[in-house]
From TrEMBL:
Cellular location(s): Endoplasmic reticulum membrane; Membrane
One GO cellular component, as annotated: membrane
Annotated ranges, domain GtrA/DPMS transmembrane: 294-411
Any one GO MF annotation of this record: dolichyl-phosphate beta-glucosyltransferase activity
Domain of life: Bacteria
Gene Ontology biological-process entries: polysaccharide biosynthetic process; protein N-linked glycosylation
EC annotation from Swiss-Prot or TrEMBL: 2.4.1.117
A Pfam entry, by short name: Glycos_transf_2
Protein name: dolichyl-phosphate beta-glucosyltransferase
Stretches that traverse the bilayer: 291-312, 357-376, 388-405
Amino acid sequence: MRSPLGNLPARQHLPVADATLATGTPVLDVVIPVYNEEDDLGTCVRRLHAHLSATFPYPFRITVADNASTDLTPAVAKSLADELPEVVCFRLEQKGRGRALRTVWTASEAPVLAYMDVDLSTDLNALLPLVAPLISGHSDLAIGSRLARSSRVVRGAKREFISRAYNLILRGSLAARFSDAQCGFKAIRGDVAQRLLPMVEDSGWFFDTEMLVLAERAGLRIHEVPVDWVDDPDSSVDIVRTATDDLRGVWRVGRALTTGQLALDRLRRPFGDDPRDRELSGVPAGLARQVVGFCVVGVLSTLVYLALFSLFRTGTGSQVANALALLLSALGNTAANRRLTFGVRGRDRAMRHQAQGLVVFAIGLALTSGSLAALHTATGAPSHGSEVAVLVAANLAATVLRFLLFRAWVFPEPSPTTSDRSAR
């Protein structure tokens, strides 16, 4: 269902010229979350400030976000803010990198928001390539990737193994396509952050991963920048605890995505921003994307159907095997098309959609069963291969009919009147 918040505006080049003229309004706000970093903070901030002053063509700000430090970090941060006009400090009374980023990013008026770790493990020459796609309007988020093929990384075998294993877990469990979730070098457009951050629950190290997964699932564009990265041997991160918390986060996010609890539609870009959704002469809006999605789901459903038919066929007759295989695959097909092809999320009317899908299933059953009956009438005792061939042809015809019924009856496009009413 469409959320009352509506869509994000279409991507466009940020009005950086206006921001340059506006006194005190930075184009880029770089946040450095710290906890007990009194020794390294001064060197880090001065180095970053010098780099931005020499290379970044627009106004910028560096925000030191202190996560309840118990040493002299707050005093060092205040001293840096007094020394450098582009530096500000912010104090939080609770720990958590995610909490610090959410708090500062939400309050910032800068159109581009970024963060990096205090150790500056990532080469700063990647900072401008990181934020440039956000300024130009090409992308919504940008991340530095240590696992890109052209990245140059120096770190121990243990950290390398953990990083790659974690990203394999994300790809296998959450179908993530980005390559590096935990590199402390990321940026996001301010308008996207205002919609996305309230949906991110984690306040610790899993914050990055959750933000990226939700953005990717909502169809936002994530730009990846290969980086040069040198491991900090004195890092205070508790690897075991962090890994445990991350796995809990993977389970929580995966469950939320599966049950449709997240209103990701509020993050989608409007019609026309995606070239696959542009109007074509004689083609209804959104048809091209729906056809592609339906075909992908249809291919997978057909494979599942054939596997189930072959399995059930060994213990029952062909008609019973066909009915059982078609029923089970139809339930999965309706659920997959509901979410992936037609973009319907949440539990509202889910049972109704499944009931309508069963009606469509009955039509497909009649078509495929009729084809089987006709085959048996014509040949008497057809081979298993002949049955499969006939069923494939019948299923192709049933698939076309299913798409038309899904689009026109089960998941019809809401009328303007209905959309306006739901928006209220």
